[in-house]
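User: My collaborator sent over this chain with a note saying "see what the structure looks like." That's all I know about it. Can you take a look?
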Amino acid sequence: MKKKLFLIIAFIAIFSTLFPACDVKNQSSLKSLTRPYIAQYECTEATYGGVDIKDKFEYIEIILKDKENLELIYKPVDGEKHTHKSKYNFNTETRELSAEIGILGYRFKPVVKIQNGRFTVTQQIGAKPLILKFKAK
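Assistant: Without extra context I'll predict from the sequence alone. Here is the result:
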């Protein structure tokens, strides 16, 4: 009996050492398990009218703060950081996220499908398409 108890304790000690994600500090929260789409997304590609504009920004990010609030944060090169807050809806069956965001005097109501931690926002501005591709950090 002592030998079995020793083996169980040894197994638990080895397992917890090899897998630090099992540490209480690093455990996933219930929120992340039930709403895995809630994350910080970084822009990986940005084009406007077929022209790459990503190099004009230090970063462009969308952060899903909780189950209904998001923030769009961007910083132009040599410019100031801008933050726009909005509400969003997420359909767990279709994996579609919809939101309304105002930027530079325009109101956008994109609907995107999140797949494998990635999504693309496509918005017509004037006669040119703005295409922003995002991936979860």
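A starting point for your reply to your collaborator: The helical segments are 2-18, 30-34.
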